[in-house]
């Protein structure tokens, strides 16, 4: 949350190391910004490549200017929900077709990564709140990734992960 507020104020990021040891270990995270249930930004990392505290701060700053959406502004801050999802390492799913993937999913628990070598798309476990049916979940992810008509191309690979989610919900004071 502090990284988002700093970005909106135009202040430099505070990358001082936190006390908690867990945050110093490599971690993967996504930061999701929403206003009144509408997505304002969602940026993240699927693999742990930097200390978790730096990954979260980086993704928080980048989520304010998600290229798919209008930038988040200072005026948005009082109504902005900030969620951080800390991901487990992805585990491959040994499936070869759409029906097998749908059957293997654990609704409400699994995040999903699909890749065919050229494209990659993911849905966080939180997406189950909006797409509770496994078939709809997978088909929406295929559409997000640009695969035509929910097609399952040759060489498609799937992996699942779980996440721990932390949310700071509005309302809050203006950041000035």
At the third CATH level, what is the topology name of the largest domain?
Answer: Glycoprotein, Type 4 Pilin
User: What is the CATH architecture term of the largest domain?
Assistant: 2-Layer Sandwich
What pattern of helices and strands is seen along the backbone?
A: HEEEHEEHEEHEE
CATH homologous superfamily classification of the largest domain? Hypothetical protein ph0010, domain 1
Number of helices: 4
Categorize the overall geometry. globular
Measured between the Cα atoms of the first and last residue, the distance is 15 Å
Region (Disordered): 1-21
Protein name: AMMECR1 domain-containing protein
Domain AMMECR1: 1-176
Pfam families: AMMECR1
Structure description:
It is a single chain. With 176 residues, this protein is α+β, with helices and mostly antiparallel strands. The protein has two domains: 2-87 and 163-168, Hypothetical protein ph0010, domain 1 (Glycoprotein, Type 4 Pilin), CATH 3.30.700.20; 91-161, Hypothetical protein ph0010, domain 2 (Dna Ligase, domain 1, 2-Layer Sandwich). Helices cover 22% and strands 28% of the residues. It is built from four helices and nine strands. Strands 1, 2, 3, 4 and 9 form a five-stranded antiparallel sheet that branches. The chain is globular, with a radius of gyration of 17 Å.
């Amino acid at each position: 949350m502090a990284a988002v507020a700093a970005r909106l104020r135009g202040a430099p990021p505070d990358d001082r190391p936190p006390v908690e040891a867990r945050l110093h270990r490599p971690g993967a995270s996504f930061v999701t910004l929403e206003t009144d249930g509408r997505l304002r930004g969602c940026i993240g990392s699927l693999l742990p490549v930097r200390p978790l505290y730096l990954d979260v701060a980086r993704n928080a700053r980048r989520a304010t200017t998600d290229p798919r959406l209008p930038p988040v502004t200072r005026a948005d801050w009082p109504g902005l929900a900030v969620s951080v999802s800390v991901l487990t390492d992805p585990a491959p799913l040994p499936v070869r077709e759409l029906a097998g993937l749908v059957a293997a999913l654990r609704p409400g628990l699994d995040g999903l990564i699909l890749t065919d070598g050229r494209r990659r798309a993911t849905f966080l476990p939180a997406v189950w709140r909006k797409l509770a049916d496994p078939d709809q979940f997978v088909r929406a992810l295929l559409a997000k990734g640009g695969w035509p008509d929910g097609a399952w191309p040759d060489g498609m690979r799937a992996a699942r992960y779980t996440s721990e989610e932390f949310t700071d919900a509005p309302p809050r004071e203006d950041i000035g």
